[in-house]
Amino acid sequence: MKTENKTLNIAGKKTQLTILGEGPPLLYLHSAGGETEPIAFHHKLAEKYTVYLPAHPGFALSEGLDQIEDIHDLAWHYVDLLGELNLENVPVVSYSLGAWTAAEVKLMRPNLIGPMVMIAAAGLHVDGSPMEELFIDSFDKLRELLFFDPKGQEAVDYFPADTNDPRILMWLRAREATARVGWNPYLHDPKLAGHLHRLNSPVQVIWGRHDKLIPLAHGEYYAKHLPNAKLTVLEECGHMVPYEKTEETATIALDFLGSV
Amino acid sequence: MKFFAFHLMPWDRLPDDFAEKYDTAWTWLPNEMFDPEHGGELYNNYLDQLVLADQLGFDGVCVNEHHQNAYGTMPSPNLMASILARQTKNCRIAVVGNAIPFYDPPTRCAEEFSMIDCISGGRLIAGLVVGGGPEYYSFSKNPTFAREMYREAFDLILRAWTEPGPFEHYGKHWKLKYVNPWPRPIQQPHPPIWIPGAGSRETIQFVAQRRFAYMGIPYFHMDFFQRNFDVFRDECEKCDYTTDPEQLGWLLPIYCAETDEQAWAEYEPHLWYFVKKLLKGLVVFPPGYTSARSIAGIQKGLLQFMSTCETREDIEAGGYAIVGSPDTVRQKLSERIKKLGVGNLLGLFQLGTLPHDMTCKNMKLFAEKVMPGLREELSVTLTS
């Protein structure tokens, strides 16, 4: 598959961008886990689209976290990035932290973003369904929190085993970049819920039934309060939807984007 | 050489099955376990112990700030220090320290410290700290801003003490139109400043560059202290001066009894309560609290942390605590103080379940049979 790696200068922030596949453009906004290198899910999307896969500031080789103070700064970064790439009305597939970011970008500059797929999206506080603590040190506990099957191959491959893992520095950087925008308020923007009625492009919400980090109630809230959204719930699936249900999620996303 | 009695004011009634049932003595430990009536007794005993330290001739007493935990139930060391400012007569009162990113605005710390300095007649040592990792969870303060908040608060406090007010402060984290604290401290230009650290390179450099005093956060293996203190001395040299031993402090648990055997027999159950229960969850580095590289380094240091100890031999081999007869304690301390090159010894004489009378006996033996000899011996060695 055609793959291109670029380093962009986005308003002074060095930004890692991977471009994957051929076809019309599609922006992918990644999660706190930092899937900044192409994974199987990206390859599925790239069968039909040119997938733009940027790394958020502070993730992978992207810099500029010192210029990010909250989720809105991160969203403005993507306003700049879409300007740099000359993209408008671009379909977006987004996951967790990335899906929250996509929603904020859409509210700031509605013309930049077209139909949206929001997978296990952060961004809300839902009374009675608190999100679990992501910023804990134990990898075993994180695996339990994020995966439906914490002993499955994806869980083993995806996580550093311990602090001696060579990926640990990148892991610590990703954690820091996530905490920068998601520590307090915890992984949400208190004002986002009040803005959802303005986010009127077609939205496909996808959620794992057994998501412990961001409970399904958040997906139901998004689906109910976004004017043009539908929710698909995946069984035997935790928070790690693109990993745990790669084929199914890609099919839902591609069918949705093909239909709007 | 100066001797301080350090107090955490720990909780002494964690359940027997604590180690199996709870992951941490911090942040998430249900506060139903705190019994206020008993808490009142403890606070009074603990204050009595620090007043006793003054009467016994210690150079100073130390209190410190922690939140939402059983390890140190002293959320406001300034309250304790203000009581001690009245009840002690001669000793220094070291607050080690105020976690200044949590003071809103940080000028509140400048004000309260000035009050303590005034009441005590200029006996305050002002500790200014970043705040422990767990506290960034307890207060939901964003740890990725911890260092820059610390620096901004630190500079603001120093200005508040030294620059005539009112003046404006428009920083990133605090915007203050009028900074003009009443009162001002007796000690001029400001009280001595101590900064504790767990080994972050950032903290060591900051303290060295500004010529303040670096307090080695305890419970690490001797080798880890040695490395950090050596790095500190190197950093001072880079700033074109040689470290004064008084710029370094070393904190560790100490227990003295009549003989080595008796000391271990009396102390050991209390030591393990501390190691296995109270230390659980202390060392947490939330994201961005310090650089990723420092965190990775400290994670390796944690293999040399006291909670990895399982036996008395582990404790002794790593120098995690000094236990024994006055002669043993003196001889071990002398050797290690010289090796580490520190001018302040901060002894932890009470560490949780140790009963009040045993704590007092421990301190008396130390003050009467260890301190005088060490003073004599080390005043020669360290200053020569």
Automatic annotation (TrEMBL), chain B:
Q: Name one GO cellular component term.
A: cytosol
Which superkingdom, per the lineage?
Bacteria
Q: In what residue span(s) does the Luciferase-like domain sit?
A: 36-342
Q: Do you know which SUPFAM superfamilies this protein is assigned to?
A: Bacterial luciferase-like
Decide whether keyword Ubl conjugation is in the record: no
Sorted alphabetically, the keyword list is: Monooxygenase, Oxidoreductase
PANTHER family in the record: BLR5498 PROTEIN (PTHR30137:SF8), LUCIFERASE-LIKE MONOOXYGENASE (PTHR30137)
What's the name of the protein? 3,6-diketocamphane 1,6 monooxygenase
Q: Name one GO molecular function term.
A: oxidoreductase activity, acting on paired donors, with incorporation or reduction of molecular oxygen
Species of origin: Bremerella volcania
Report the leader peptide range.
none
Query: What Gene3D superfamilies does the annotation carry?
Result: Luciferase-like domain
Q: What is its EC number?
A: 1.14.13.-
